[in-house]
Design goal:
By secondary structure, this protein is mainly alpha-helical. It contains 16 helices and eight strands.
């Protein structure tokens, strides 16, 4: 069984919070996503603060990790965008631009006229590209919650009413929040990639986070949580993305894909309609088709054997080219048929099966072994075996290992040298196992792990 290099992963993610290789500069506009990956992974590893009143936190287990909770929280709040207008008759539909942007690479820029006239209208002084993005709003809320923030400083109504304006008539959501009240969703350029299931999932997750425990906080007594989004049209759009295989494509008519399938099923779960949809007469059998499609995405690694002449070949037989052996083989997940294994799909497809209460149908041991084979000696996980680590695949590999509830991934194979070390290792394992035990279907759908304050 492959060892889980916990300490190396802790150092990888904590170091990545402080500095990144220059290749990440191309992702500067999405810097908030990179922070999200690091913080969530450290949460899984048990290295985030327990006492949320502390500003400067070292890892609770004493590893080589340093997390400045206060600075991260303040930085995220600094990325919040200011809504341009609030109508006199309430929040719903009355403002645009509420949410978060991906980084502070481009802050509000005042024009010369605004500076001379000391214009108090914030909307007129904003740069046209200084706007919120639905995916960045999603990762901001997730990260703040993992850091123990209560979201009390969030303008929930501004974000929700902006979200309402982003939903199109067909139920999908566009990604970018405009900076002008003259914006009309119907006039949005019909680019499919601007309103696919990724943004549906982000929008529904934002809606759920901000409304699920908002029983008494609504300032408008005439407004209910369902007024912000059209659940029926959102559900219909998700179902329109169903492919002939049973999986979900990013948009209607596209090939089924592991990532978009997770986003669609998780959205239905968060909307509270997943069970109802699966029980519809016109969709009879869809759950079985979808489950079969997901299970069939697990692919065993081909085993290399050395012939008598010293040459290395792939061991095959007449059974479709695969060898049936007594020894179990690592088996990763592929996102689509005839593609290579990829560690992130262990979460996308494994998470989908988890939401369908069917994760027991895949080979969890083989999938875990494949993910652990992709560990880097520097910490983190690569996309495939032998690849350099990156934050996206490292986080989703960690998320799957947690979701799979394989407690062995937290074991330390090395024996403790004395009684104190034995107690220390026992505390570490207990802490991480507690995080694993708290992971629920809700956390799977939101991409959040471990300590929940909700």
């Amino acid at each position: 069984m492959k060892k889980f290099e916990r300490l190396r992963h802790i150092r990888y993610f904590s170091h990545s919070l402080r500095t990144l290789p220059k290749q990440y500069s191309a992702a500067d506009t999405n810097r908030l996503s990179l922070v999200h990956f690091c913080v969530q992974s450290l949460d899984i590893l048990g290295c985030l603060p327990v006492d949320t009143d502390d500003e400067l936190i070292c890892g609770t287990a004493g590893e080589d990790v340093y997390v400045n909770r206060g600075e991260i929280v303040e930085w995220i709040y600094g990325l919040g965008t200011v809504p341009t207008v609030r109508s006199a008759d309430g929040y719903v539909g009355g403002c645009v631009g509420g949410g978060f942007k991906g980084s502070n690479y481009l802050g509000p820029i005042m024009s010369n006229d605004d500076a001379d006239n000391n214009n108090d209208d914030q909307s007129s002084s904003r740069h046209p590209y200084d706007h919120s993005h639905i995916a960045m709003t999603y990762v901001a809320l997730c990260t703040l919650q993992s850091l123990g923030d209560d979201l009390s400083r969030i303008d929930k109504h501004a974000i929700l009413s902006t979200l309402q304006g982003l939903q199109k008539q067909n139920g999908s959501f566009v990604a970018l929040s405009p900076t002008s009240t003259e914006y009309d969703v119907a006039d949005e350029v019909e680019a499919e990639d601007d309103c696919d299931l990724r943004f549906m999932y982000a929008a529904i997750a934002v809606w759920y986070i901000l409304t699920s425990n908002d029983d008494d906080d609504d300032d408008d007594e005439n407004t209910t949580t369902n007024d912000y989004i059209n659940i029926e049209s959102a559900t219909q759009y998700i179902l329109s993305c169903k492919s002939y295989e049973g999986a979900l494509g990013l948009t209607p008519g596209r090939e089924g894909h592991g990532g978009s399938t997770f986003c669609g099923i998780a959205s239905l779960y968060l909307l509270g309609v997943l069970d109802d949809v699966m029980s519809r007469e016109e969709l009879r059998g869809w759950k079985d088709e979808l489950t079969y499609w997901c299970v069939m995405r697990q692919k065993s690694l081909m085993k290399k054997v050395v012939d008598d002449d010293g040459s290395s070949t792939t061991n095959k037989n007449d059974n479709n080219g695969y060898v049936v052996e007594e020894e179990e083989q690592p088996a990763g997940m592929v996102g689509r048929p005839n593609k290579k294994e990829d560690t992130c799909y262990s979460y996308w497809i494994g998470g989908t099966l988890h939401l369908l209460s069917s994760s027991h149908l895949m080979d969890g041991w083989a999938l875990r072994e494949y993910v652990l084979l992709c560990q880097s000696p520097y910490g983190g996980f690569g996309k495939v075996v032998g690849a350099m680590p990156d934050l996206l695949h490292s986080f989703y590999s960690m998320a799957w290992l947690t979701l799979s509830k394989e407690n062995g991934c937290c074991e330390n194979e090395e024996e403790a040298d004395d009684d104190d070390d034995a107690v220390y290792e026992s505390e570490v394992r207990s802490q991480v196992r507690e995080s694993i035990g708290k992971l629920s279907k809700l956390d799977c759908a939101l991409g959040m792990c471990a300590k929940r304050t909700r």
